[in-house]
Specification:
This protein has about 475 residues and is an alpha/beta fold. The protein contains 18 helices and 18 strands. It is globular, with a radius of gyration of 23 Å. The two termini are about 45 Å apart. Mean pLDDT is about 85; it is low at about 5-65. A hairpin with a 2-residue loop joins strand 8 (about 185) and strand 9 (about 190). Helix 2 (about 95-110) packs antiparallel against helix 15 (about 380-390), helix 10 (about 245-270) runs antiparallel to helix 11 (about 280-290) and helix 10 (about 245-270) crosses helix 17. Bound molecules: beta-D-galactopyranose. The site of beta-D-galactopyranose (GAL) has 13 residues, from loops. Beta-D-galactopyranose (GAL) binds near residues 323, 357 and 427.
């Protein structure tokens, strides 16, 4: 597997990188050791023939073979290997579940080297613009991460993408994925991506032992939260930690669901409830009161940094999608239920705000066959049940094996099957990409003006511009 940054999205100067070590079955040519580095260049190739069983390569008489020969053998392998470039924003702390999937792919497809091109930035805030430029510049990766839902409309238009309907028929996926999810990846008569998971957006995270120390319980409504807010502040604890702007949009969608209820929340996306209506404007008022209970250094904090504050006891609660469960268990090694606790975001119990990560195939993918093999694996039961346990998400496949999943994921699965489902705005399910990126500006406007009425009017203007409710 090779990890590339935006800059390196095309293969780097190969000869400029020397092997740094040999591992069983592979040569790791370069590795950036910083786990938090947003851009990693991690080149992982099949070990060249002749390198087998040697910690240090030797000739038949046991003398070390010159470095030049090792390099030549490596380069020969590189030039012969079939490549597959996958593009996503799962970098740094978000990388491990993807790495597991890549390993599975490489094991199933010996001879194909995965170029893992990642652009760091939670929820794809940075990846989307790079992807847009690559698609419109005629430089598509072989497969790219996308959200299921209305976000896909933008990629269908910018692409074009390949219609995957026949892949779904061949793999029997029309029977294996839930109908509602299939609807999210279809538009205009085509099927445009293969879902790899389902995440839940409306989750509140906390550490049970810390709440006990502070004498508070997890609030079930925002009014309850606003009541415990001063108690926590008096103890020097941030009641609710927020991070960089998209995480505040993430909080907004949970607050909107709580204030409006699922019916009216959905009515926003079908255009039946204007954003400038008194009901929708009320969301901003509650949102403002909640923000008064948050940290004032949000802008410089990543979502993982916000989670760290909850774990460290500097903050009591955080609203984040359940990739936080992946981070808490896979990266921090915490036990669900004791190391961390969770509940539906206040006022949203009984509703599962859904989003799904998926992969699409652009027309003109340089390695189309390898990309199709990737998609087949991504949609397979084995692929999904390998990727999702460390990711914090669940597999939407109806035949998924819950055995390897954590206690958190099992609880999410039962909510997914029993609760009413609505789509996430920030993570591409509810609205097209024009609205989602424009909404970040509406939010920014609200943060500087503090005017709920203005925010409602701006959101409504944006909805009209981006065609919300037009179909
Ligand atoms: C979401 C994505 C998740 C996770 C999260 C944080 O949009 O669906 O898989 O990556 O962003 O980056």
């Amino acid at each position: 597997m090779r990890h590339l940054s935006a800059k390196d999205a095309k293969p780097p100067l190969r000869a400029s990188l020397l092997p740094t070590g040999l591992k069983d079955g592979s040569v790791t040519r370069y590795k950036n050791s910083s786990a938090r580095s947003p851009y990693r260049l991690n080149l992982h190739y099949p070990r060249p023939k002749g390198a087998l069983n040697c910690g240090l390569l030797t000739n038949v008489r046991g003398a070390p073979i010159k470095n030049a020969i090792i390099l030549a053998a490596t380069l020969l392998t590189l030039t012969q290997a079939q490549e597959l470039e996958i593009f996503s924003w799962w970098a740094g702390d978000e990388g491990p579940p993807l790495a597991v999937l890549v390993d599975l792919f490489e094991a199933q497809n010996p001879g194909t080297v995965v170029i893992n091109a990642t652009i760091a930035g939670g929820s794809g805030v940075n990846a989307r613009s790079v992807l847009k430029a690559r698609l419109s510049g005629g430089d598509p990766p072989d497969a790219f991460q996308v959200h299921a839902g209305r976000e896909i409309d933008s990629w269908v238009a910018a692409g074009p993408l390949e219609d995957l309907s026949s892949l779904f028929a061949d793999e029997g996926w029309n029977e294996v994925f839930p109908k509602d999810l299939l609807e999210l990846i279809r538009t205009g008569g085509g099927t445009w991506s293969v879902p790899v998971n389902v995440h839940r957006s409306n989750v509140m995270w906390f550490v049970p032992a810390k709440l006990k120390t502070w004498g508070v319980t997890a609030p079930t409504t925002w009014d309850e939260f606003l009541t415990v807010c001063p108690t926590l502040q008096e103890r020097g604890v941030t009641p609710l930690v927020v991070a960089e702007p998209w995480t505040q949009g993430h909080l907004w969608e949970s607050v909107a669901l709580a204030v409006l209820g699922p019916e009216d929340y959905e009515a926003l996306w079908s255009g039946r409830l204007p954003f400038s209506s008194p009901e929708a404007v009320a969301v901003w008022r509650t949102f403002g009161r909640i923000l008064a209970c948050t940290n004032d250094d949000a802008a410089g904090l990543s979502w993982q940094g916000a989670t760290d504050r909850v774990v460290g006891g500097e903050a009591a609660f955080n609203i984040m999608g359940d990739w936080a469960a992946g981070y808490l268990t896979t990266t921090l090694g915490l036990e669900p239920g004791t190391g961390f606790g969770w509940a539906a975001s206040p006022g949203t119990d009984g509703t599962f705000m859904l989003l799904a990560d998926a992969f699409s195939l652009p027309v003109g993918a340089p390695n189309r066959d390898a990309a199709l093999a990737w998609l087949r694996m991504v949609g397979s039961r084995e692929g999904q049940d390998t990727f999702n346990p460390p990711k914090g998400s669940i597999s939407p496949r109806l035949d998924s094996d819950l055995g390897p999943y954590t206690a958190y994921a099992r609880s999410a699965y039962s909510d997914y099957t029993e609760d009413r489902q609505v789509g996430s705005l920030v993570h591409g399910a509810a609205a097209n990409e024009v609205f989602t990126s424009g909404f970040a500006e509406v939010l920014e406007g609200y943060l500087s003006s503090g005017s709920a009425a203005q925010a409602g009017a701006a959101a409504q203007a944006l909805a009209e511009r981006s065609g919300i409710g037009a179909d």
